[in-house]
# Entry
Amino acid sequence: MHNGKQLRRWVQARQMALMGYVTRIIILETGLTDKQVRRLYRDLEDDGYKLATNRTTRTIRSGATLLNSQLNRIHASLMMQLYINTGGEQVYTSVNIEALDRAFRMYQALIYEVSRIDPHINRAKFTISDAWCLASELRSEEAMFESCSTCHCSYFTSLNQSSSGSCPFCSETALMHRGMTESAKLELEAKTESPQPQQASGEKNIARVRLSENMERSKAKETGTRTMKDEHPKILVN
# Structure
């Protein structure tokens, strides 16, 4: 029994190392020592894995650093909403590594698709370690989701954040990225509803059309020709 538990810890540590978690988080989640984790790194590198590819940072950041701008708060809201959709109510009592890994892959795919239309979105991009830090604050009740009374969107907020606690989707900065927020809404709806393959293809085409229309409206606003009929962007509210 003891050997089986130890093996599971090593397997989890291996998976976390390949995902790009920093050493400190791997130690906290698995109970392995720093020496054991570094030995694991050497074994993986000897097997030909390039750990530096996914591990772009070696530090743990808190909400005070991660949520320091409205764009960062939009990223956090999208990523953590995916995490809750994947992990369910359990995420409020413990960090679910498996759910966090799945949510992070979906977040990466979402940001990649949006960046093809609005490259500016890449100015804020979180790592898997950043996702763990936000998930940890959610578990410890230092972070939560709030609902905006104006646009009715749910957004992630932390007691440790340094920026305004107002809705990032209603901010003037967020209006510059209305194409990103509308695309995020469509992506989240598609992932939550788990459509059939043939339905997913149609929804993807619809998403592209609606995203294109939103980008055109954004450009019209910048030149002073946007009308009052434009709707405010929203994301999925669970």
Q: What stands out?
A: Residues 2-53 form one domain. Residues 179 and 216 are 9 Å apart (CA to CA). Confidence is low (pLDDT under 50) at residues 194-209, 221-238.
